[in-house]
C-alpha cells in the first residue's frame, strides 16, 4: 500500500508534548474505492501522521487525506488539553509524498486571492488605503476585529469554515445597524453592500446544522464557496466603512 506522511507542530513550542503511537484509525470511502489507515505519534511537540492508503492520486486525494490527518491530530491534542487544561494548537505543515519528496502545506485559500480591494497591503504602497490604514480600521472596531479573525481561522482549521464564516457575516450585519432588529439589519446590509438574500443565505443556511451541534465533515467544494462568499462580504463591508458608511455603487460593486 502507498504510504504518505503529514508532519506538523504543536504550539506554543515552549511545551514539549510526547504521545506514544496511537492505535490505527481506518477511514473508508466505498464510492471512491478508497481506504486509508492513519496513525499518529508526537515527540517533543513534533507531529507525524502516517497514512497507508489503498491507492493514491495526489490531485484527487491529497486534500481529503490532509483533512483527516488534521482531524486525527486535533483529536489527539484536544484530548490532551482537556485532561491537563492546556490551550495548545496543532499545525500540519509538511506533506511527504510516496517517493519521499516533502512539500510545505501553506495554509492559503487560492480562491480568495485578489478579492481584497478595500486596502492595498503591498509594502511599497503609501496611499490612504495602505496596510496601516487597514490595521487602524480593524483595531478600532471590535466587531470587525472579531469578524476578521473568524474569517481567517478556517484557512488553517478546516472544520471551522461553515460556522466561522456565518458568524463573521452575522457580526458585520449587527455592526452595520446596531439598533435595528435582525430583519432590519439584514435588509440594511443587503441594500448597502449590494447583496441578495440568496447570496448571504448560502453561507448562513450551511452553518445552521453545525451551529446547533449537528456536525459532519465539510464538503471541500462547499467549504471553498462559503469562504469565498464570506471574503466578498468582508471586503464590501471594508469598502463601506472606508467610504464613511455610504452605500456602495452598483457600477463598481454589482449586485451578487
How would you characterize the overall build of this protein?
There is one protein chain. This protein is an alpha+beta fold. It folds into 2 domains: 3-104; 110-242, no CATH class. 46% of the residues lie in helices and 17% in strands. It has 7 helices and 6 strands; from the N terminus they run E-E-E-E-H-E-E-H-H-H-H-H-H. A 6-stranded antiparallel beta sheet has the order 2-3-4-1-5-6, covered by helices on one side. Helix 2 (131-140) packs across helix 3, helix 3 (142-156) runs antiparallel to helix 4 (161-176) and helix 4 (161-176) packs across helix 5. The protein is elongated, with a radius of gyration of 21 Å. The mean pLDDT is 89.
In a nutshell, what does this entry contain?
This protein is of the alpha+beta class and 256 residues long. It has helices at 58-84, 131-140, 142-156, 161-176, 182-193, 197-211, 220-242, and strands at 3-11, 25-29, 34-43, 46-53, 89-96, 102-104. Strands 2-3-4-1-5-6 form a 6-stranded antiparallel beta sheet, covered by helices on one side.
Amino acid at each position: 500500500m502507498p504510504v504518505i506522511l503529514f508532519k506538523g507542530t504543536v504550539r506554543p513550542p515552549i511545551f514539549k508534548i510526547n504521545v506514544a503511537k496511537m492505535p490505527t484509525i481506518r477511514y473508508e470511502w466505498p464510492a471512491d474505492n478508497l481506504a486509508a489507515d492513519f496513525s499518529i505519534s508526537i515527540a517533543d511537540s513534533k507531529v507525524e501522521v502516517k497514512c497507508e492508503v489503498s491507492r493514491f492520486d495526489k490531485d484527487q486525494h491529497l486534500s481529503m487525506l490532509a483533512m483527516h490527518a488534521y482531524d486525527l491530530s486535533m483529536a489527539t491534542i484536544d484530548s490532551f488539553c482537556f485532561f491537563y487544561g492546556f490551550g495548545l494548537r496543532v499545525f500540519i505543515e509538511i506533506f511527504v509524498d510516496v517517493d519521499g519528496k516533502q512539500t510545505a502545506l501553506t495554509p492559503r485559500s487560492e480562491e480568495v486571492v485578489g478579492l481584497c480591494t478595500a486596502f492595498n497591503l503591498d509594502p511599497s504602497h503609501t496611499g490612504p488605503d495602505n496596510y496601516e490604514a487597514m490595521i487602524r480600521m480593524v483595531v478600532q472596531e471590535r466587531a470587525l476585529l472579531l469578524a476578521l479573525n473568524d474569517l481567517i481561522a478556517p484557512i488553517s482549521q478546516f472544520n471551522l469554515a461553515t460556522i466561522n464564516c456565518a458568524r463573521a457575516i452575522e457580526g458585520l450585519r449587527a455592526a452595520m445597524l446596531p439598533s435595528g432588529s435582525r430583519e432590519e439589519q439584514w435588509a440594511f446590509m443587503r441594500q448597502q453592500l449590494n447583496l441578495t438574500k440568496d447570496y448571504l443565505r448560502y453561507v448562513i443556511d450551511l452553518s445552521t446544522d453545525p451551529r446547533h451541534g449537528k456536525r459532519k465533515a465539510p464538503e471541500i467544494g462547499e467549504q471553498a464557496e462559503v469562504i469565498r462568499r464570506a471574503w466578498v462580504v468582508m471586503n464590501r463591508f471594508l469598502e463601506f466603512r472606508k467610504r464613511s458608511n455610504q452605500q456602495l455603487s452598483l457600477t463598481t460593486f454589482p449586485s451578487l
